Amino acid sequence: MQERLLQALEKYEKFCGKAEIRVIATARTERISDFEGEPTYWDKLQWEKYPQLWNRFTRYELAKPEDNAIIELFNETIPNTNISAKVEDYPALASRNDRTFRNVVENLRSLKNNQQPLSLKTYQHTLKDTWEERYKKAVRKYPANRYIYDAVDLLRKFDIELQQFTVQATARMLAGGNFWQQLQYWRQIRIATNLLIHSERISEPHDGQIEAKRKQVEAGEYILRLSRLLLKLAERYPTQMQESLISFGNKVSRLGRYKEALASFDKAINISPESSLIWFLKGNELFYLGKFQQAIFSYDKAIEFKPSSHESWYNRGIALDNLVREEEAIASYDKAIEFKPDKHEAWNNRGYTLSNLGRFEEAITSYDKAIEFKPNDHVVWYNRGNTLSVLGNFKAAITSYDKAIEFKPDFYQAWNNRGLRLSNLNRFEEAIASYDQAIESKSNLHEVWYNRGNTLCNLGRKKEALASYNKAIEFNPDLYQAWYEKARCYALQGNIEQAVYNLQQAINLNPEECGERVKTDSNFDSIRNDKRFQVLLQS
């Protein structure tokens, strides 16, 4: 949640400008848990874990209401209700209150709904444990209430609007049972839902109200059943269900349930076929499913209803890239940039596609534009370094890799490619240090171990090179290049037996390339006349 809040804040600042944005947030900071074994509200805030978000805020501790403020609230509110009360009790009641207005409001609401008087006997001094007692009382009165609470819990997990018909239908789904049980629950759930909506305001639950049942619903278990239920409800209540379908689709998409998300968006499109947003969301699901041609059709529909949708043009470009329709992809990225010139992702993808087409200078220009709008994007710097490498500009490539690493120190791909370019410049010791950094970030990279072995071999450090090749083979036994290089090292050391053995492994894995290469490789000249080597060549 904190990460999404930070992303949202950054988006607002980017689109509106920091000077135009003011964010005021309130949060509960209790350091004692409502329920044993559960995190406190302060723990949930995770103040120390997300300094990038919370350091943007100035923190104020809000003063707790004084007794006079609570008495004033009683004076202003109670005359407008049917609650009987004695004014002379107000000071005692205020002093008993847990210093939150929320507790006052919930007490008055409960007293009004239950037609009870306000007195020292009926007033709860704190909300702690209050919700749990209310839940137990509700379940005692109607056992089916537990399904209603669970339904609200489940629907909230998918941001589905808590309407009476959605809550009731979900509660019946959760209740299950045979035909007669379902019939019994149907009547009880209908009555209990009406009661909970009016007496407990369950369609607008407060903090801790639903959690009072203690056991949360495992959302993942109900995705398929809930998906089918929502589609049925949408047939009966199309207008009321449209936003819920979109919310559900977005939620399950993040969980990797793309088929259910797609079904939800399809139903939403039936309700509102000219919605650019829904066509865009459908395109995303088709993309995730690898149906790129169908995704492009959906993005085209989104663009038809909103031609300036830079997101649709951008995602369309990615889908075209996946179909290797690169010229069309570049045209799509150009349209995204036309409507949003600072869309650095489009500039980056455009550069990558241009590079694939061999238009390297244009690609560099595109990467430079991406960097202009987002200087700390490590991926752009990395892609720029790769393109400069193809152009043979190794020094400039190393500079780009350095920038990528500056913004992402554990970027092992950049460390590896940096090592390769340093080797191209015969800066072997620096190259080895770069490979070591890549391995520190991710130790099982066979390609890095292999490259490291080659560089050590160039320095004449054969034993260390062999150790690196062995690590490469450990992580990728089919890496014929490492077997071949090991054979070369052993041949240069005069170890015929190991040279022949490793060469045999390389040839077994790639007979055409290794079999031809060994015939003219001067590194094997010292053992070429050995019978064992001759037998290998002949075989």
Radius of gyration: 33 Å
Q: What is the chains' assembly state?
A: single chain
**Strand runs, count:** 0
Described by strand count, sense and barrel closure, the largest sheet is: none
Total helical elements: 29
SSE string: HHHHHHHHHHHHHHHHHHHHHHHHHHHHH
Distance between the termini: 63 Å
The helix/strand class is: mainly alpha
* Net shape: elongated
Helix content: 55-70%
Range of strand content:
under 5%
Low-confidence stretches: none
Mean pLDDT across every amino acid position: 90
Structural commentary:
It is built from 29 helices and no strands. Helix 16 (310-322) runs parallel beside helix 18. It is mostly helical. Among the domains are: 2-54, no CATH class; 67-213, no CATH class.
Set out the fold topology.
Layout lengths: L1 H15 L24 H5 L5 H4 L12 H11 L12 H7 L4 H13 L16 H12 L3 H13 L6 H12 L3 H21 L23 H14 L1 H17 L3 H14 L4 H13 L3 H14 L4 H13 L3 H14 L4 H13 L3 H14 L4 H13 L3 H14 L4 H13 L3 H14 L4 H13 L3 H14 L4 H14 L2 H14 L1 H10 L10 H8 L1
Give a brief rundown of this model.
With 539 residues, the protein is mostly helical.
Kindly list the characteristics that best describe this protein.
single chain; mainly alpha; 68% helix; 0% strand
